[in-house]
Design goal:
Blueprint lengths: L3 H28 L7 H19 L16 H24 L2 H11 L3 H20 L4 H6 L1 E5 L7 H10 L16 H4 L3 E5 L6 H13 L1
Antiparallel strand pairs: 1-2
Helix pairs in contact: 1-2, 2-3, 5-7
């Protein structure tokens, strides 16, 4: 029987399949004239459908390089970012759709900034809760990666909170192109590692040989 992590992965993949095909059906229905979507909404539906199906059937992205560091690769980090963005977007749309009355009254009392503020708070909770409780967001579950501190141990609440806040720094995603890497990793003293099961045999051999040589 699968463990808790395995069951969570199965659940995420199943939901991704269901929502992905549902969105595809909505796109096809639009072309058949049964529903009408604007160009922007139709493009969003197609992107969400494609992203969800990629999450569902993409499998694990294993390390392809030869450096035996165990760090997540650039492609894994990109997939984590894109998949979490899609899943968060679906969560936000679902919450707002089923609570329209509440958000309308909130907007009338606070102003147009109400929904963006709620989105920022929800995004903080999304990353903070997942990375605190299981060291992984849903996307990291799928790519076989997790958040650790600089010693490879579970990061404390302060480090997770700090890396989550740093995500909101302007242009932070572009720090991936700097020599030091993403700011929410380097500034918070954390990093994203591959799980032991995703390290290739070549990496394992290299690590063993390095240990024997020391």
């Amino acid at each position: 029987m699968p463990d808790a992590k395995g069951l969570a992965t199965i659940l995420i993949r199943s939901l991704a399949v269901a929502f992905g095909f549902l969105l595809l059906i909505m796109v096809l229905a639009n072309y058949e004239g049964k529903q009408t979507y604007s160009g922007d909404n139709l493009l969003l539906l197609m992107l969400l459908a494609g992203g969800l199906l990629l999450i569902a059937f993409g499998g694990r992205w294993r390390r392809a390089g030869s450096e035996p560091t165990g760090l997540a690769t650039g492609s894994q980090r990109l997939m984590n970012f894109c998949a979490d963005l899609i899943l968060f977007r679906l969560l936000l749309i679902t919450i707002i759709t089923y609570n329209l009355g509440f958000f309308r009254s909130l907007s009338s009392s606070i102003g147009p900034i109400a929904i963006p503020l709620f989105g920022i708070g929800l995004l903080f909770c999304y990353y903070f809760v997942f990375e605190t409780v299981i060291q992984r967001t849903p996307a990291k579950l799928l790519t076989g990666t997790k958040v650790v501190d600089m010693d490879g141990a579970r990061p404390g609440l302060g480090k997770v909170a700090l890396r989550t806040v740093i995500r909101f720094v302007p242009f932070e995603p572009f720090s991936a192109f700097t020599n030091k890497g993403l700011w929410h990793d380097t500034w918070a003293g954390t990093r994203v590692m591959m799980e032991q099961s995703t390290i290739t045999s070549k990496d394992a051999e290299a690590l063993t040989s390095e240990g024997a040589g020391e």
